[in-house]
Please model this.
Amino acid sequence: MSIDPTLDYDDQNIFAKILRGEIPNRTVYEDDYVLAFHDINPQAPHHILVIPKGAYVSWDDFSSRGNDNEITAFVRGVGHVAREAGLVDSGYRLMANIGHDAHQEVPHLHVHIFAGKPLGPMINSG
Ligand code: 5GP
Model:
C-alpha cells in the first residue's frame, strides 16, 4: 500500500527500525548521515537502497527540510555506493518514489539503485 507523503514522520516505519538496529539489514555502506543496504526483494541483480539517517518522509520532505550537510552527504553517498559496487561502467538507474502515484511504500526517504542487466524502458506505461 502506498503512503501519504504529507503525513508527519512515523518513527515506527521499517527503515526507522533498521536505523535503530531493531531489524537486521545487509549493510553496503554507512557514514554519519547515510545508510545503504540491499533491498529485501531485489528487482534487479543489484538493488541497493540508500537512506538518510535523518527523519524524512520523502524526497519532497528532505529537499525542503534537510540541511546542507545532510543533502550533500546523501547525494555523495548514493554516488559512492554505486561507484564502490562497480556499477558506473555498465550503468545504473536511480529511483525515488514519492507518494501515491509513485507507489511509495515505506515512509522514510530512500533512493533505489538498480543495476546488473539492461533495465528496459524508463517507466512502465501500464
Ligand atoms: P518503495 O515502494 O517505498 O519505493 O520501496 C520500498 C522498498 O523497500 C521495496 O523495494 C521493498 O522491497 C523494500 N523493503 C521493504 N521492507 C524491507 C525490509 O525490511 N528490509 C529491506 N532491506 N528492504 C525492505
Notes: The pocket of guanosine-5'-monophosphate is lined by residues 14, 23, 25, 37-41, 97, 103-106 (CB under 6 Å).
